[in-house]
## 1
Amino acid sequence: MKSFSLAAIVFIFSATAPWIAAAQDEPPPNIAGVPPKIVVLVRQEFEPGQAAERRKLEVAMARACEKLNVPNSWIALEALTGPSDALSFDPFDSFEQMDAAVAGWGQIYGAHPDLAKMQDEIKSLLVSERTIIAVRRDDLGSRWQSIDFSKAHFMRVLEVRVNPGHESEFVESSRSIGGDYEKFKGDVPWVVYQVNSGIPAPAFFVFVPMRALKQNDELLDWRRSLREAEGDEAAQRVEQIARDAYAYSETNIYAVTPEMSHVAPEFAEGDPSFWTPKPPAPAAASAPTASKPAPRKEPASKPQQ
């Protein structure tokens, strides 16, 4: 009997979300864009009809923070599929840094009451909010060191909640990804985070960054190649295991919104035209058209006597 391989996860993903193969000729990743050790995910749902007001406040908040020494950065993600929610991706290196950020924001809000008021106005538009802390699993990702979040314009996010007692199957399957994908392209960067707090455990998040939605077209070839390599019997088997092992799984795609994000300058250098676009140059004023002189009017002839 075939052991639980990552093919099970791939079938779950491909039912709603394709994997994206990285281009072989990509330049080295921006070190500032490498997946962080810890990520704080803040999922927010807002009152209907308040999108414009919320966006205005979020943009103003991000721009105000550019002038201050705020203790952390964040990437704002807007849902393109699933519920109309917003997801904030806040990177951290450690829990100690998170602790310092909490204290730092308290000082900033105390020194800048206008900023605190702006944050309160954003909160007043909320229907719900959930904060999740997740820790990177270096042993589960595939080529995650090559991921550069600074070049991502879209993000595919898979949330998996595993039935109690089945976490080892998830771990085993993820570790076998290298051998499984050697049969195909073997070059699919993805990173896995295990939930530390915020939702029922065991739970995991898988992040696949994308530059363009057209990369999703590669799904068709991936699914066909996977079934050809694994065979129908094995595919049915891993699908059954997935049904038994997973309590919940959902994949959604988000658009990265730089105007509502706050990232470090070295992070923005990974794709400056996206993160810090230059304002369009003003249109050159056209030279005034010289007016044509009026035809000379001859004096009226004096009538002869």
## 2
Amino acid sequence: MYGAISAVAIAIAASFAAHAQIAGEPPQGGSTVSTVSADVVKDLAPTGKLRAAINLGNMVLAQKAAASGELGGVTVDLARELGRRLAVPVELIAFDAAGKVFDALKSGAWDIAFLAIEPVRAAEISFTAPYVIIEGVYVVPATSPLQTVADVDREGVRIAVNKGSAYDLYLTRTLKHATLVRGESGTDLLLKDKLEAAAGVKQPLVEFAKSNPSVRIMPGRFMEIRQAMGTPKVRLAGREAPPRYLHAFVEEMKASGFVAKALERSHQPDAAVAPPAAD
């Protein structure tokens, strides 16, 4: 019975892939993970569609076209390619902050998400190895006496962060003297409350500094942000096949050049494709 179900799933996947190529989607190269068991499909897409949480709060990973409202970026491309492999439709669920993606886990709102690997999150999410590496940096007032990353962690320094972000979680664990100020927008807090620094992903902070001459980007990084794909642990109940499949999928997407090309298409040349995972 199981063999028959698997055979049907394989046939469906092959048919779907062929249809995608006929429809004009480019083939994605050789695949070691294209054949998916019916059980893995059920675990990853239990509703019959793949619900992918897309974090629009990180411009490196996802973008929304102003005119059309269409979502794009490396996470969107990865979600659609995974759906193609699983032979299920993809539903993109947009969030404006990573913390809100994590909060939505409790309600079972998504099947896969693209978040930075953090211990708090890893307690509830089964992560792949990272597919993209980005930097966490500080922005400070142009006249600030703070010059290096080490200068920031001192008494009296208030650092604005986006609540629930990877850098919020990281700095919560690692800061010894400075104080975190959390909100919907760290950069807004920096200006409104005249704080000493704001932390964030390098690329959007660089854009913020370009349009705000009253601030400057501090050289160096305070953390490496490892962006990965994840699925809820509560659904897996100890089953290892779904996370193994996602791990292999992400590794193939890196090795084949898929991730690099997706970053290039979305105009994110400063983001680095993560190195192969150590097996």
